[in-house]
C-alpha cells in the first residue's frame, strides 16, 4: 500500500538507481546550502566582470532552473550536464550551446535530437546568454552533481540572493528564516481558517451523503463551491523578498486542496485535478534580484509539489507567467501612496529600520514624502515596518483583504510604534500573536513580534504565544479570562511622577577618553586659572550599568559655554578640536555644526533635575532584565541610560520591587 505514495515509490526507485540520494547526511538543507554557495560564487565573479546586475540575476536563475529541470526529468538525458561537460573543453562554445537550449525552452521544440518542452513563463523570454570562462563552467559542473530536485525553496531564495546581491554577500554564511518560523503566521492566517471552513462544508456533505438516497448533486455543488473559493484565494506579500513566504503559502493552499480532495473522495464524491497554482500568490518587492528569485522559487515549489504528489504537469506552458510578483516600491509611487492588489490575506516580513537609521538608509527627500503621505496614520518616529502594518490595516478596513499576519521588531509593542497596533484594534481585532520571538533578519538573530489581525472576530481561538486568551491588547499582553480583563495600554501617567525621568545626553562625537588619561589631564593648569575637573567627568552608558564599569570619562563643556570660554581649558579643548569638530562639520543640523564643542543633546531638564542631588537612580534602556543603580551627580549618563531624578532610598526600593520590575518589563 505504501507504493501508492509517490514519495515512498521514489525511495524504492532510488534504492536501485540512485542510492547516494538515500545517504542520511545529505539533507535537503545541506543540498540547498551547497547549491546557493556554488552559484553565489559564480554570481560574484560575473559581477566583478561588470556585467549588469539584472542581466546576471536573470542569467543565473535560468541556469539554476536548468539544473533543477534536469534532475526532475523535465530536461531529458542529462542534457544540461552534457552541455556543461562539452563546454568545459571549449568555453568559447558555451554561449552558442546555451543560446540554442534557451531558445528551445522558450517555445518548445528540438535541441539536437532531444525534444524540449515549452517552458517560458517569462524566464526564457529570450535566448540571451552571458559568456562563461573555464572556472565558471567548472563551478557549474560541480553544481550539476548536486541533487537539485531536493532544494528547499523556503530557504534557497534567501541564500542565493545573498550571493547575487553585493550588499548582502557578507551574510553568505549566516542563518536564514526557516519554514517553521514562517508557519507561525501562515497557520493562523491561511491554514486554520480554511480548514475550519472546510470542516463545516464537510459536515454538510456528510449529512447530504448519509441519507438513504444520497443527494450527490447537492453534495458535489457544496464541494465545488469550497474548491472555487480555494481557487480564488489570493495571498499578498507586499515585501516578498526572494519569495520564502509566498512559497510556504502556495504549498499550504495546495496541501489544503489535496486534503479536501482526499476527504471528499472518501465521502463518495469525485476528486478533480488540482486547480490552485502560482497565480494564488501575489508579491511586491523593490529589490530586482529578490523579485527575480521570488518568481523562480514559486515555480520550483509548484513543480516539486505536483510531482511529489504524483500529478503530471500542465505543459501549456510549464512555467505560468508570474507578472503579479511585481518589482516596485510598496509604500510610495509617483503620485503619493502606492496601491496594493486586492487579496484574501496579507502576510510577510517587511523591512525593519528604526527612526534614527531611516534618513541615512532612505534619504531625506524620500522620508519627508513618506511621513507626509502617512501623516496622522503612522507616527513620525515609528519603525519603517509600521507603514506596512498601517497599509495592511487599511486594506482590511476597505474590504480589500480579510486577514493579515506580519513580522515586526518587538518594539512595536510600545512607544510610537504601538500607535499602529492601536489603530488596528480600533478597526479590527488581533487574533493571534507571538509577543517576543527570536527571528533571523538579514542573516542576524533579532527579537520580533508576530501579529495576526483581521476585520472581524475569528472563528478559531484567540492565541497569544500559543496559549488561549480572551483578548490580545496592543502591547501584546492578554486578558487571561473575562474576570481579569486588564488592558494595561489604557494605563495613565501618574501626575506626581512628572519631571522625574529623563533620557541621558547624546554626544554625537568622540568626547570620551580613558580614566587614566583623564586623571592625568586633571593635573594640568589652564590660562583661566580653572581646573580641568570643571569639564572632565566620569561617563556611564548602558554597558557600565549592566556589566562592570569601564572607567570611561568624558569632556563636558555643559550648555551655555562659548567657544572662547571652552578654549581656555586647553588640553580638553584641543582634543575636541582634533577629534570632534571634523565629525560635526558635515552634519545636517545647523546647531550641531555651529556648537561643535557641545553635545548634540545636552538635556537641560536632566541637568536641572539632578543639580541639587548628591546621587540619582539610573537604568539601562536596553536590557534583558530591569534593574536600577545609584550614580553620583558628577557622572554623565548617555542617551541609552534612563535617569530617575530621586536620591531617596524609598524610591529606589519601590523601583526595585518585584511589582515594578514586572510592570517595567
Provide tags for this entry.
665 residues, alpha/beta, nine-stranded mixed beta sheet, four-stranded antiparallel beta sheet, 23 strands
Structure description:
- α2 runs antiparallel to α3 (53-71) and α8 runs antiparallel to α9 (216-232).
- The protein is globular and about 100 Å long.
- With 665 residues, it is an alpha/beta fold.
- It is built from 24 helices and 23 strands.
- The strands form six sheets. It has a nine-stranded mixed β-sheet, with helices on both faces. Strands 16-23-20-21 form a four-stranded antiparallel β-sheet.
Structure class: alpha/beta
How large a portion of the residues is in β-strands, by DSSP E? Answer: 5-15%
Task: Tell me the radius of gyration.
Answer: 31 Å
Give the distance, in angstroms, between the N- and C-terminal Cα atoms: 56 Å
If helices are DSSP runs of H or I spanning 4 or more residues, what is the number of helices? Answer: 24
- Say how many strands there are: 23
Mean pLDDT: 89
Question: For the report, how would you describe the main beta sheet?
Answer: 9 strands, mixed
Helical content band:
40-55%
Net shape: globular
Low-confidence stretches: none
Order of strands across the main sheet: 5-4-3-8-9-11-10-12-13
